[in-house]
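Budget justification note: compute hours in this period were largely spent on complex prediction jobs such as the one shown. Inputs:
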Amino acid sequence: MLRRSFLQQTTAAVVGTTLGSFATPSWAKRPLPAERHGRAHRLFPSDASAASGSKFAVATVHELASRTALDIFRAGGNAVDAAVAASCMLSVVDGHNSGIGGGCFALVRAPDGQITAIDGREQAGAAATPDMFLRDGQPQPKWSQTGPLAVGVPGQIAALQRMSKQLGRLPWRDLLLPAAEVADRGFLMGRLAKVVAANAGELSQFPESQRILLPGGKVPTAKTLLRQPELAETLRQIAEQGGEYFYRGPIAQQIATHLQAAGGILTTDDFAGYEAKLRTPLTTQYRGHRVVGFPPPSSGGIHVAQMLGMLELFDLRQVFQRDPASVYHLWLEVMQRAMADRAHWLGDADYTQVPRGLVDPGYLFQLAADIQYGQTRPVNGHGLPPEAESQFFGDKHTTHLTTADHEGWVVAMTQTVNTSFGSKMIAPGTGIVLNNEMDDFSIAPGVANAFGLIGAQANAIAPGKRPLSSMSPTIVLNADNQPVLTCGAAGGPRIITTTLQAICRVVDLGQPIDQAIAAPRVHQQWRPAEALIESNLDETIKSSLEQRGHQVRATGSLAVAQGLQWLGDGQLLAAADPRASGTALAE
Ligand code: DON
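Corresponding output:
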């Protein structure tokens, strides 16, 4: 017998409310039940690094990057300057996650409320073809993940320069030189040493990567001092000469020559033709808030909006009060519906038609209509959004960082070289870790990428096209257009679902951003049809999800998030995920 759907059960809560004008019911003033988390200490510390202040705030995944941002603020820089400087420092101290050989998406809010979306996503070379990762018709996922063919034209420096020129205050060179200095002087590797050890086999296939990261064939320790003089010189030259040095000068030449000699296809023309693009931010409504996300080639903005649109039907706070497991169940249900749409519809909107109807509230109500309280429902395929033939988006291992200041500048920025150390290649003489972002394309229909994601024609390879991304920098504003929170993460598709849970925890459950980020998470990406849960999720919640039919698999950290929250009294609260050793700072 079918149980009554959740939609029917909560109709009373929905009737009389319109999207974006959800009234706070009286029970909401009662305290929420405390969530129990198991074994957190064995996975990661249960508390986020958190800091509050009224002048400025920053959260990044590395202490040196957060400290650099603080120095820039103190020197009179705004949140854009601080983010650019922190980003460059991450290239040096956290190069396995992101760097100038990779790409990024940045959302920047100016004090007048204007939000700019800067797309520094990597791009396929002109010689790229849809079948470049097939041999005799058989997909070769290794080629899109490691080595010269995996590399897309990096977008990071173009995006940072555009941010700095258009929206920053301090001179460009001042933002790069601190990173150059640390690259030269060296720093203690800390957790990075473990990442090098875990990737030593593949890194050692590439002589320059081996020379820099595994000198003498020796695996580094946390106390190893990593000096990167070539990267220091690259950063210094870019500081003095700007992006030209990277895209039309010696760096493009050195990378293209090296990749071609190793069997790659990128040319100096591919570099010369690269530009960071301005996109139109994607703004949707959630419980009276404006949620600003990143449009394609990010999938994150659309999917966070889709999931929130479905959740709008449910009174999460009330549901949580009655049974916290039901909130996790609802999250998993909306995740699989959104992810089924991702696999079919999404790709670079400059190349493929991504329907605007994907975020239509009516469509999302329809997608959510079969969600039931007591059991999970299989999702057989993608939905059919309204006007899918006529209304489209577009004008025709990773890290998230965030900064804000009292003037009203806000940055939410996610940057990546894709998986740990990207292609595993460092172009000789440059110190630059080259990305493997080509693996974010769908190399053949139904063939999973490194994150198990499948895609379709919309995300097939084409010359000059940008691969679909899960990076989801997000800014949430209140009805007066004032910032409420920022969030974003690293972790492939888990970025999207992590961002969703952080927003719901702050907006629906009233939790501060540091708790919201630290709390255990769940993830469902439609294929494979399994519910991933972090292993410190409470056992009773886990059993409850299993009873509802979810194929539950426990895992360690799902994603690493950073966020900011405006506390309403002029105070900014910054939070860095306890799952990594990030640092939040504020003054
Ligand atoms: O853009 C994307 O979706 C991926 N390249 C992100 C990779 C990632 O988050 C790896 N982090 N752990």
